[in-house]
Amino acid sequence: MDLIWDQDQLKQDQLKQDKVPSSTKKKSAIKPSVRLPFFGCAVSCGFPSPADDYIEKKLDLNEYLIDKPSATFFVRVAGDSMIGVGIHPDDLLIVDRSKEPRNKSIVLAIVNGEFTVKRYICRNSKITLKAENPAYQDIVIVEGMQFEVVGVCTNVIHSLK
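Given the sequence above, the corresponding structure tokens read:
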């Protein structure tokens, strides 16, 4: 799975500094939050249910989706290696650099200078990056490979357009 950066290509020295491309930094300034209506009643996806006309509270997506704003950035997805977990081309991933990967986390990683998004599997101190599409092979991390976890993917924003 490739990732699309809006303008600048990553430079290796940027990765060593703080792992976030400068083009992402320029666009990641958090604007004042906007609270939108949140209807607390569950919405039926089966048979229709009566509407409650009740707004429970106002919801700020920054509060809902982002734990640590200073360590969080967005990337756009290209490729279909993670469609099995609902990550599709053109989706936006929310990546938190402050989180340590746990076994089975979805991570943004660098492998031999290339970005990839995969499931992080750690067994017996061996790391495998697993695609969630059977058309793609796993990436087994071995000695001599350049490997770094940039951050843990915490959410995916998928447009229905």
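The first strand starts at residue 2 and ends at 4. Try to locate this feature in the token string yourself.
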